[in-house]
Each structure stands twice: as C-alpha cells, then as structure tokens.
Amino acid sequence: MRTLTLPGGEAVPALGQGTWGWAQDPARRSEEIAALRCGIDLGMTLIDTAEMYADGGAEELIGEAVAGRRDGLFIVDKVLPSNASRAGTVDACRRSLRRLNTDRIDLYLLHWRSRTPVAETVEAFEQLVEAGEIRYWGVSNFDRSDMAELVAAPGGSEVATDQVLYNLTRRGPEYDLLPWCREHNVLVMAYSPIEQGRLLGHEGVTEVANRHDATPAQIALAWVLRSDGVCAIPRAGRPEHVRQNVAALDVRLTEEDLAELDANFPPPRGPQPLEML
Ligand code: NAP
Question: How far is the CA of 192 from the centre of ligand 1 (A)?
Fold first, then answer.
C-alpha cells in the first residue's frame, strides 16, 4: 500500500475506506462487513466513519467487522458540530469509542464548522489526546480561510488533516486549499472521490479507462491520488469493487490522459468556495 505522512511523521495508507450510508439496510450488512474486511486484507487499513453515519450504526458495524483485528488499523471518526463544545466533544468521543468497541480513535475530526469557537473544540481534542482516547485530530469541510483561522487559534497548528470534497467534478480546492495544506504540512483526505458514483458513467472518464483497460472508478481514484499530499477514502460496499479500487493505485495516468481529463473537467481559474455533500 502506498502511504502518505502525517505531520507527526506517521505513515497512513493513501487509499482508505468510507462508510457513509452503511448500516442502514440490514439486508446489505453482511456484504458491507465483507467488503470492509476485504479492504483491510488488501492494505486499506484506514477506515473513515462519523457519529452521524446511521446515527452511530456505521461505527457499530465497524466495531463488529474489526473485532479481534484492531491493531494495525487507522480509524478516522468525526464529531458533529452540534456536539463540538469542550464537554460535548469529549462525551461524543466516548460514545463513539463504545460503539466502535475500541479504546482509541486514530484521527478525530470536527465534521464541519461549528458555532462553538474552534479554539474550544481544539481544547477538547487536546484533552482527548492527553488521555490517549484519540491519537491525532483534524477537521473536515474547512476552506482555506477556515484553516488560516484555525492555525492562528491556540493549539490550532497541531491540525493533522482537512477532509474535503475533492474529485474530477469538484476541483475548486486545487486553486488555493491544496497548496495551502501542502505548505502547512496538513494531509488532505479526499471524500466522495467517485462523486458518489456519478463519475462512473461519464464518457470522458470511460475513454481514459478503456485506454488503460481499467474501470471509470479506477480512473477517478487514480486522478485524485496523483496529487501530492492527498489520500482518498472511497466507499465500496462490494468486495469486487474494493479489489478494483486497490488496483487503482497501479494506474499511472499519462500527460495525454491528464490533458483530456482537464478538457472535460476544467481546473479552477480562481478561488471557489469549498463545496460539501
Ligand atoms: P464515493 O466513495 O465517491 O462513491 C461511493 C459509490 O461509488 C458507491 O455507490 C459505490 O458502490 C460506488 N463504487 C465504489 N467503488 C466502485 C467501483 N470500483 N466500481 C463501481 N462503483 C464503485 O462516495 P461517498 O461515500 O460519498 O464518499 C466516500 C466516503 O467519504 C464516505 O463513505 C464517507 O466515509 C466520506 N465522506 C465524508 C464527508 C464529510 O463531510 N467529511 C462527506 C461525504 C463522504 P458500491 O457500494 O456498490 O460499491
């Protein structure tokens, strides 16, 4: 598995597994668990979840899927903005730990900006790090100006990650957020890298895929992963999709591919507000 480095020096997989929308349909549960375990076996040991997903149900599904094999995993979880006060963050984290059936979250993110001053949430994150309940903390859906405000707040420069919507159809972050994160050594985690499946039928993506004997999903992932300092967390609920996604790490896009994709999905020419799903 290709890896990227957190600000503290720890390596994390360039490709992880998302879990939004899981644990909602009992008929799909066993395949979701099988997909997650298949991904872990293939090196996708970074697992992304949130207390919001299925109201904690996705965390419980992960807890079940990884029982007995917690070591070696890197679990990313998120606190809801409505819980992001100092005491609320700590309580939410402990509820998540119980659902995950683990004693630590590897990376704990603020899901999106909260009305609570960000410095207060950072204080809670620091308390959780000190207690060993989380190992690193970060944010999600923070635009460049939010990041600048965060690093200026007490303790804010310890931020490890910004998890944002970034894919071929959502290229806004390339203009300013990605360069800012690179400069400040903040890992970018690209969510919805396949645009929730909407990129699969795109003609321009299919053409490039055909040249590589690859699938559109693999091209969408290879494109996100071409950027320095960016990892991706696709959600794949079927083992065959998981296997395809891991193989996307071997797809090398050529100059011709990239030019063609630029023509179909133009890069930003100026600052654009960060989009979110
Ligand atoms: P996504 O990963 O872009 O797309 C998921 C869809 O793509 C699913 O329908 C999946 O179908 C399909 N898919 C995956 N691999 C495939 C393949 N090889 N071939 C064909 N289809 C494939 O969308 P997402 O779930 O929105 O984003 C990924 C993760 O990012 C989420 O699960 C969540 O963990 C995180 N996220 C975070 C935020 C945030 O605010 N921080 C927001 C959105 C998402 P199957 O299930 O049938 O495989």
Answer: 5
* Pocket of ligand 1 from Cβ distances under 6 Å: 18-20, 48, 111, 140-141, 163, 191-197, 200, 215, 217, 233-238, 241, 244-245, 276-277
Question: 220 alpha carbon to ligand 1 midpoint, in Å?
Answer: 12
pLDDT tens column, 154-187: 999 999 999 999 999 999 999 999 999 999 999 9
**Which H helix or E strand runs over 109?**
strand 105-110
Q: Is residue 204 part of a domain?
A: no
Number of domains in the chain: 1
Element containing residue 232 per DSSP (H, E)? strand 230-232
Per-residue model confidence as pLDDT tens digits over 12-32: 999 999 999 999 999 999 999
pTM for the whole structure: 0.98
Range of the domain at 105: 12-168+176-197+230-238
Rounded Cα–Cα distance for residues 194 and 196 (Å): 5
Q: With H, G, I as helix, E, B as strand and everything else as coil, classify residue 24.
A: coil
Question: For the domain that residue 44 is a member of, what is the CATH number?
Answer: 3.20.20.100
